[in-house]
């Protein structure tokens, strides 16, 4: 399988703190990879480096064989990397459907001229975007909530809506930052099934951050464990969960997180 993402010796220094320290890993197409580790391990910082929100201190990030270090975040999104945030970022006063539609519009293929005159090309595109928004909502079980203001959506569904918004930009690589945070075990299990379904139906790859390995071990072909910015271990769930360094540094402390 072709490499989709290749991170080599990635380091991010905040003053004296190495939030990410010499991290290297690869992701293949159509893969689901887990990124786990205790609070402050550097997980979200890796997402911010991949998406161009933070500049790197050193190291390289290649996406589809191209170096993306130094590119503007919008450019990286255009290339096919989109994300959700650890803290939900929705338009709270817009409806569920409008939230998806505003995200779809960023990838719309018509000019301001087309839209101002409501030319056929604009109307065709609008129809396509509406259909796409409906399809995404349906897959994620949000259709019946489409006209509700996002703020009134139950918390677990707000998290799903965040994923739909990231999906609306047609990613090749979807980055999910603790998508199951605050969900109960049932909601979490349903979400994990949906993540696999998104991967399969949209032929994309997913990098998912979690605190708890047990939540993602069933769906990830590979898990990367971080601790204090350093990569502690990499492998399938069995390898990682039996690694003594992981047990000591991470699994021994799950009660705190
Ligand atoms: N913009 C910043 N400026 C300074 N320090 C930062 C910044 N962003 C992150 N850090 C520090 O980098 C370290 C890694 O943070 P990061 O948010 O990546 O951790 P995390 O693994 O996502 O943790 P959590 O599980 O709590 O979300 C932490 O010590 C954090 O305080
Ligand atoms: Mg984080």
Strand-helix topology:
Layout: E1 3-14, E2 17-28, E3 32-36, H1 43-50, E4 58-63, E5 66-67, H2 73-79, E6 81-83, H3 96-105, H4 112-116, H5 120-139, H6 155-167, E7 173-177, H7 185-202, E8 205-210, H8 213-216, E9 222-227, E10 230-235, H9 237-241, H10 244-249
Parallel strand pairs: 3-8, 3-9, 6-7, 7-8
Antiparallel strand pairs: 1-2, 1-4, 4-5, 9-10
Bound molecules: adenosine-5'-triphosphate and magnesium ion.
Question: Can you walk me through this structure?
Answer:
- The chain has 257 residues and is an alpha/beta fold.
- It has 2 domains: 164 residues, P-loop containing nucleotide triphosphate hydrolases (Rossmann fold), CATH 3.40.50; 63 residues, no CATH class.
- The protein contains 10 helices and 10 strands.
- It has a 6-stranded mixed beta sheet with strand order 6-7-8-3-9-10, with helices on both faces.
- A hairpin with a 2-residue loop joins β1 and β2.
- α3 crosses α5 and α3 runs parallel beside α6.
- The longest helix is centred in the middle third of the chain and has 20 residues.
- The radius of gyration is 19 Å and the shape is globular.
- The two termini are 35 Å apart.
- The relative contact order is 0.18.
- The model has no long low-confidence stretch (mean pLDDT 90).
- The chain binds adenosine-5'-triphosphate (ATP) and magnesium ion.
- The site of adenosine-5'-triphosphate (ATP) has 13 residues, from β2 and α1.
- Adenosine-5'-triphosphate binds next to β2 and α1.
